[in-house]
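Journal club side-thread
Mid-discussion, someone asked how the predicted structure for our own chain would compare to the paper's figures. Pasting it here so we can look after the session.
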Amino acid sequence: MPVNILNLPGLDVVDFRETDTEYHVRATPKAISRLCPSCGPASRVVVHQQKTLFVRDLPSHGRAVAIHLDVPRLKCHDCVRTFTAVVPEVDADRQMTERLVKWIGRQSLEYPFTEIAKQVGIDEKTVRAIFGEYVAELEKQYQRDTPVILGLDEIYLSRPRGVITNIGDRCLVDMLENRYKKTIVEFLKSLPNPERIQAASTDMYRPYREAIQEVLPHVVHVVDKYHIIRMGNEALEAVRRRMKDTISGKLNLALKRERKLLTMRQHELSDEQWLAVSGWLNNFPQLKVAYELKERYFRIWDCESPDEAAAEYLRWQEAIPPELAKPFRAITTAWRTWRKQILAYFEHPITNAFTESFNAKIRKAYQEGNGYSFEVLRAKVLFTDVMQRKARRVEQVKVKRRPRFDELEGARMYFNLGRMTPEEPQYDVRNVVKEVTLGTDLSTLLAEIDHWPTRC
């Protein structure tokens, strides 16, 4: 029998056998808990019968390990209840050692559940349950840093999921199960030091605006420039598609092939490309008006102040002819509803481009890891140590000032004068350096995706 094969100080190894795939160890506990779960320490407990527990342990030498543990069944004379004695080395909720439970939790962030289950010799459902408990524990310990510039967006992973980013430090802060207002409000309330947040960038989704107004009324809310600008090209596309009923099929197909040139800015076109575009515009007056409106709409973002941009938009809106009011209605509605958040960009030029980029990488990770659930993907992205970006923050803390020796006589006189309560204690302010977690680093995530297993 191998000496000390288990390396568990609380168990005595009695016998050992092995097969091609498993080690089987017979052991007895050095100490047990005789505490009755109902009556407590005051109960009278006696041994009722013997029982052998089949306990799983850490795999060793590429083989699963099973412990045949001889423990007594106890009986309480006070409540007449029988129960199995508790062994310190064994997890109280599962027939496996405590160290195996911790090992499965750590490994489940790195390897597929099926692979871990095969190594240990247990069911995949058990690994999944342990993973859930492990992630819940990590969630309690996880302390995220509050960003200065917040990004809120969503990604579709079987259904819309909320994505929160730190735009200033270019990190992922969290992924939410959904993008309901209640969920967003709960997350924003969970952030420490919310006064640090100065601005937030979102798309035009009403629950984002309502959540920010409710929890962070001091924050400057900026609508992402990309979402509002692209509506100009969408309006031009609507005009082009509407023309298919008035022109021949071949001509419509040719115009469709040139649609990318129509959506490009005029100054970005080469001479050859502009020649092609101007040919279409000269032959279709309505398309020309829509194209000029699109170009003029884009120029609004060349303004330098909110007032200048607002005035330019009003002039642009007045230039829309009645026959093109419907294709451009989405723009006018957006400006009417989100005017304040749109104009905020001209004083705080931040965008959600980083969040959109991170969404693409998360989507790639979701596709590469075929079979990942949202819970597994979120845990791997947020809690894998190698992907977390750390930073040092200097915080000011109040420390109670200790009395000096020459102040003690004054304190004694203070009480002699008949005043029964001392003065308020004085405090010193000191700078303390703390390490904080900014979030998941984008570049590290990209490097790790290629090494992720494809099933979990």
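Post-session note: The chain has a mean pLDDT of 84.
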